[in-house]
Q: What sequence folds into this?
């Protein structure tokens, strides 16, 4: 019981002694304290008429009692509200239907629903938009384009839309497909010279969800097919939901007319999962596995990684460890068994990732970075990469050298030193902020 | 206060207001009518704190004023008075009601103690026509009587924003769904109203041709305004279960039979069902439906009703009372009954009307 509720109980007990039983039962029995902030007390009563009676007759009595208990001069506000105790679902009629669960939808996981999705600031907009779309397919945001990095819940959200729509109106035709499968279908149809069937199938959908559209890049014939499917569906009032790792405007090797159509509805992004969200996800997943995960453990796992899939991986390891070996959660965490995940166990970066991110940032190919060429821009990128590898991984200079195309360890030492020297004077630290999301300026050792 | 009123008008007004008087309230003021004499009318109000009703009765008012009098006594008195006109006048703490040969005086309680029924009118949501309102008779009875389940004690009106308005009520064992209800509103998506409010609206003898609906979000009140009366109820703040997913599709067995015959059959079988937890069996045969019931200590009986049957022969058992309830509110002569097996809900429809259906959960019976 909360403090507020206790306070209200005390007040009620006092009122009970002051008023007749009849009045107490009729007026006060179903009241409750909603909030108590800065001396303003909000009290809920079942109807406006009850509020009117209470205010008319007992305002002073309640105020006196509240003042005495809180030691403040309070102000009373009343709101009409019934205290709902439970949501009803245990009625036989509703139970009978509960047995007919989702899962009929091909390729859609039944446990990806809105109900078991953790929501926080980073994905709230996407969540709400998706929910709106699921409630009124084809009538609000069309298409809905969701983008965001790996493992933040794009697919979960899309399949939740599919499940929700299917659950409500099982008769509606829902197609969920990944871009890869879509490509395969198109290619197959062309190969067997049977495009009519495929066209009919896709174009009859009332909800069409296409996952990971970035993989359509460079596949012109498939894009053309999608373009026509897209137009037919939208014209027919069907809902389209798309997901990608980049917003439409940044998609490469995708036809302009398709991009313009992608951005024709609502484009929402899902940011990286924040710490609280990761904790929430862990707790939800743990519940799914029927495992009693403590808050502290959840927190320490959430510190380890950004990716939702990896979170689940670590959780599974933890469950296996505790259940097969019979040790406590805390011990497992402390023993560091969970530490040797793919990233070396810290929220830092693997060597591959550093190289990949650097290449992406400077827009060069990894082969060039590792290659022998020594153009000015290339050299700078290579040195930044050396520096970051040194900072982010526990590799030795010669190991880094091997990674970067078999360079000598002295080359690496030089590169690292060079960057450290430049860090103060140039905007290099900003570059690196863009690559790893960390600030290295404070890391520099000043040699006086 | 002094006003003259026609007895017939007064009686008619009191009959409706009387619905809002709680029979067993522990607050004396709630056992009273509030009577206000205003210019050209008497305004009579009553409330049990859950709903409130106000009616306006045309009157000749000589002096404005207000008071409250015991509801039951006044109602009983006015029901029996034969005089054409009555004069109401307040004299100190007494309200005198006098007619040609009749003199009555009531002790009163001050009007100031009476709760304010309606603090603000709220926002106009739209108009419900009388003939549409009457359709709610087919829905409202399915709502739960149990106030411990707020959501199910209400009637849900939903989908006003577009896609057709549905009206639903369910008590967990049965559900009534009316589709395509002609009430649209741009301002609100759905309303969950206490079944009692709808029942009271339907119970009145002289319903206006149009009923205006207002909603005051701040007071969470729904206000139904008619030509000469106002009914105020609270909105239920609870989530109605997702009804769409329990509406069965493509049931394998369908039977069409005469409604009156079926109603008769159910009544006859009820005699025995009464002693056997109200269990009534429906056996679907090739060309008929057999209603039957048995009570071990009393006996048993069965009644055949001719039917056009599609699908396999089957059997199901329902609560007889639920069957009576639904058969008595259905329109048309023929009932379309659909089922898929003894353990899945059965569906009742009016033949040729796709906008109404009623679902009943079967009773599981041994043997």
A:
């Amino acid at each position: 019981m909360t403090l507020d509720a206790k306070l209200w109980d005390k007040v009620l007990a006092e009122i009970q002694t002051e008023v007749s039983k009849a009045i107490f039962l009729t007026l006060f029995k179903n009241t409750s304290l909603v909030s108590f902030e800065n001396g303003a007390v909000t009290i809920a009563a079942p109807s406006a008429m009850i509020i009117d009676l209470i205010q008319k007759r007992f305002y002073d009595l309640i105020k006196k009692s509240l003042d005495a208990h809180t030691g403040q001069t309070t102000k009373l506000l009343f709101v009409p509200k019934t205290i709902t105790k439970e949501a009803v679902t245990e009625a036989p009629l509703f139970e009978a239907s509960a047995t007919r669960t989702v899962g009929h939808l091909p390729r859609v996981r039944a446990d990806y629903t809105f109900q078991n999705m953790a929501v926080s600031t980073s994905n709230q907009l996407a969540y709400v938009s998706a929910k709106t779309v699921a409630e009124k397919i084809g009538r609000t945001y069309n298409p809905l384009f969701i983008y965001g990095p790996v493992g933040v819940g794009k697919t979960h959200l899309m399949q939740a839309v599919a499940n929700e729509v299917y659950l409500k109106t099982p008769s509606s035709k829902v197609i969920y497909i990944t871009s890869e499968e879509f490509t395969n279908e198109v290619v197959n149809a062309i190969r067997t010279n049977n495009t009519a069937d495929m066209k009919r199938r896709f174009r009859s959908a009332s909800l069409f969800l296409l996952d990971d559209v970035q993989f359509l890049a460079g596949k012109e014939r498939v894009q053309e097919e999608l373009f026509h499917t897209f137009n037919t569906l939208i014209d027919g009032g069907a809902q389209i939901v798309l997901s990608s790792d980049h917003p439409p405007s940044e998609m490469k090797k995708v036809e302009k007319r398709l991009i313009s159509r992608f951005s024709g509805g609502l484009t929402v992004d899902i940011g990286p999962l924040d710490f609280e969200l990761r904790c929430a996800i862990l707790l939800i997943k743990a519940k799914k596995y029927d495992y009693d995960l403590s808050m502290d453990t959840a927190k320490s796992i959430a510190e380890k990684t950004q990716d939702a899939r990896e979170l689940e991986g670590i959780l599974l390891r933890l469950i296996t460890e505790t259940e097969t070996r019979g040790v406590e959660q805390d011990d497992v965490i402390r023993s560091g068994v969970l530490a040797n995940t793919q990233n070396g166990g810290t929220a830092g970066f693997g060597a591959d990732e550093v190289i990949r991110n650097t290449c992406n940032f400077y827009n060069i190919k990894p082969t060039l970075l590792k290659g022998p060429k020594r153009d000015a821009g290339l050299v700078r990128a290579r040195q930044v990469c050396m520096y970051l590898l040194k900072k982010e991984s526990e590799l030795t200079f010669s190991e880094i050298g091997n990674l970067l195309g078999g360079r000598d360890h002295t080359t690496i030492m030089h590169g690292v030193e060079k960057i450290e020297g430049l860090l103060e004077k140039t905007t290099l630290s900003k570059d690196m902020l863009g690559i790893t999301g960390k600030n290295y300026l404070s890391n520099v050792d000043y040699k006086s | 206060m002094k006003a003259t009123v026609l007895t017939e008008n007064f009686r008619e007004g009191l009959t409706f207001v009387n619905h809002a008087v709680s029979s067993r309230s522990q607050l004396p003021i709630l056992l009273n009518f509030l009577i206000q004499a205003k210019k050209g009318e008497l305004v009579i109000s009553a409330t049990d704190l859950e709903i409130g009703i106000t009616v306006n009765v045309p009157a000749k008012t000589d002096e404005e004023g207000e008071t409250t009098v015991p509801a039951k006594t006044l109602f009983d008195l006015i029901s029996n008075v034969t005089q054409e006109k009555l004069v109401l006048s307040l004299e100190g703490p007494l309200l005198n009601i006098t007619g040609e040969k009749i003199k009555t005086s009531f002790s009163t309680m001050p009007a100031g103690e009476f709760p304010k029924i309606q603090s603000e009118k709220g926002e106009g949501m739209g108009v419900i026509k009388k003939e549409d309102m009457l359709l709610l008779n087919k829905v409202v009875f399915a709502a739960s009587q149990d106030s411990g389940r707020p959501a199910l004690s209400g009637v849900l009106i939903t989908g006003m924003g577009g896609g057709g308005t549905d009206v639903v009520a369910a008590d967990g064992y049965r559900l009534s769904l009316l589709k395509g209800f002609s009430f649209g509103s741009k301002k609100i998506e759905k309303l969950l109203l206490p079944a009692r409010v709808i029942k009271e609206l339907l119970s009145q003898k002289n319903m206006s041709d149009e009923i205006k609906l207002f909603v005051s979000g701040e007071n969470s009140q729904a206000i139904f305004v008619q030509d000469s009366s106002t009914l105020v109820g609270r909105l239920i703040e609870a989530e109605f279960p997702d009804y769409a997913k329990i509406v069965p599709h493509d049931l394998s067995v369908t039977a069409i039979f005469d409604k009156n015959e079926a109603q008769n059959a159910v009544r006859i079988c009820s005699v025995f069902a009464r002693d056997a937890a109200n269990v009534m069996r429906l056996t679907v045969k090739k060309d008929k439906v057999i209603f039957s019931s048995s009570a071990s200590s009393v006996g048993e009986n069965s009644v055949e009703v001719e039917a056009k049957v599609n699908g396999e022969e089957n059997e199901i058992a329902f609560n007889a009372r639920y069957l009576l309830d639904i058969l008595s509110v259905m329109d048309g002569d023929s009932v379309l009954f659909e089922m898929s097996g003894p353990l899945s809900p059965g569906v009742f429809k009016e033949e040729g009307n796709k906008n109404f259906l009623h679902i009943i959960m079967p009773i599981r019976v041994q043997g």
User: Anything to note?
Assistant: Residues 318 and 324 of chain A are 10 Å apart (CA to CA). Chain A touches chain B at residues 21-23, 25-27, 46-50, 52-53, 56-57, 80-82, 84-94, 96-97, 100, 136, 139, 167-171 (CB under 8 Å). Residues 97-103, 341-347, 444-448 of chain A have pLDDT under 50 and may be disordered. The radius of gyration of chain A is 30 Å.
